[in-house]
Specification:
Elements lengths: L4 E5 L7 E2 L2 H6 L14 H4 L4 E5 L2 E4 L2 E3 L4 E5 L5 E5 L21 E4 L3 E4 L2 E4 L4 H4 L5 E4 L3 E4 L2 E3 L5 E3 L25 E5 L2 E4 L1 E6 L2 E5 L2 E4 L18 E6 L9 E4 L2 E4 L6 E4 L7 E5 L2 E2 L19 E5 L16 E2 L2 H4 L4 H5 L11
Parallel strand pairs: 1-2, 1-3, 3-6, 4-7, 5-8, 6-9, 7-10, 8-11, 9-12, 10-13, 11-14, 12-15, 13-16, 14-17, 15-18, 16-19, 17-20, 18-21, 19-22, 20-23, 21-24, 22-25, 24-26, 26-27
Length: 351
């Protein structure tokens, strides 16, 4: 196994030391990204890297393209990577920035780990600034533990993109013309906050014992009458490719909010084959009784399921008729090992 390379950001007594995360990343020697089979670091003779980040707020727009990198903070609360780009920003050429050029941190590699880090976008609320990604996660075997992802609309993008945009120019950004490589991502003991579609994308992503906070948008007008139904958000907008057995899985998560009762949906399909399942999750009163919205996609293509939901928002009797209540046997097929192990036996619980 190659020797681990250790770098330190804002630790004055450590060597080699750096004043920013970007500076530490720029110091790393170039490494050719491994082929699609994703061999282990030892097989490539690539030294794994751990970047220790001291407590602080780091206002940096970061791109990580080197494999086998770990970002290690003291705690997510005191180690914050943040930036402030919004999709509605007008660029010098007169075009809008668009969703996929807003990420505070973009990961475009495999075998990346982050622990004790906050990824944040402070551009503002979606109705005002447009989509604003805190994290653009594009790659295989990505692990996030005890991390926070905080923004408004489109907080976390779990790449890849769908094959084509619904409107010309909709995918403008770094992944627009890139191959659509499916990846596996694992989020454990994380906190994710946003409002509209704030967990979205095509990856196979597993959320284990996470807190999912639906934040009431501060730029929304109040309803004109008490009888008007107001929807403040959608937690997920998966775009699982056709034929993939798994999409998003949430296990033993807490769904919290400061939104009024019945104003947030569990999900809607960004693309028609979306797959999302909640297992043993606590659901607050903010969850809409229907649970799911079809976004005018054909029924029978997307798959939405729950098992053993509990809490004020877990009214299974009123759920949308196209959703599923899983049996014990069906729920048992959604362990991390079964969802994430193919094709190479990856087990993030063992890391």
């Amino acid at each position: 196994m190659s020797e681990i390379l250790r770098l330190y950001v804002n630790y004055p007594d450590k060597h080699p030391g750096f004043s920013s995360v970007g500076e530490a990343l720029a110091s790393l020697p170039d490494v050719k990204i491994a082929p699609p089979c994703f061999p282990a670091a030892s097989e490539n003779n690539i030294p794994p890297v751990i970047i220790y980040i001291a407590p602080g707020i780091y206002e940096e727009n970061l791109v990580i393209e080197r494999p086998y990198v770990t970002l290690l903070g003291e705690t997510a609360e005191n180690t914050v990577l943040t930036y402030h780009l919004g999709a509605n920003e007008i660029l010098p050429d007169g075009s809008k920035r668009g969703t996929f050029r807003t990420a505070s941190v973009r990961i475009h590699t495999h075998d990346f780990t982050a622990k004790g880090i906050t990824f944040q976008n402070t551009a503002g609320y979606g109705h005002t600034v447009g989509q604003a990604l805190a994290l653009y996660a594009d790659g295989d075997r990505l692990l996030f533990e005890n991390c926070r992802m905080i923004a408004s609309q489109d907080t976390l993008f779990t790449a890849p993109l769908p094959p084509s945009p619904a409107k010309p120019g909709g995918f403008t950004g770094p992944g627009e013309h890139a191959p659509r490589t499916m990846g596996r991502q694992f989020y454990r003991h994380c906190y994710l906050q946003g409002d509209v579609d704030f967990i979205f994308g095509s990856a196979i992503a597993y959320f284990d014992e996470c807190t999912i906070f639906s934040k009431k948008p501060g730029d929304r007008k109040p309803p004109e009458s008490p009888d008007e139904e107001v929807i403040y958000g959608y937690i997920t907008a998966a775009s699982t490719p056709e034929g993939e057995p798994y999409g998003y899985v949430f296990r033993n998560c807490r769904l919290l909010s400061d939104c009024p009762p019945h104003t947030v949906y569990l999900g809607r399909p960004w693309r028609e084959w979306a797959k999302t399942v909640f297992l043993g999750c606590e659901m607050g009163a903010h969850i809409h009784p229907l649970g799911w919205n079809d976004w005018q996609k054909p029924h029978g293509h997307f798959y939405y399921g729950e098992h053993a939901s509990f809490g004020e928002g877990a009214g299974i009797e009123s759920r949308a008729d196209f959703s599923h209540q899983l049996t014990e046997e069906e729920a048992a097929s959604y362990t991390p090992e079964q969802v994430l192990s193919s094709p190479d036996g990856w087990n993030p619980l063992a890391i």
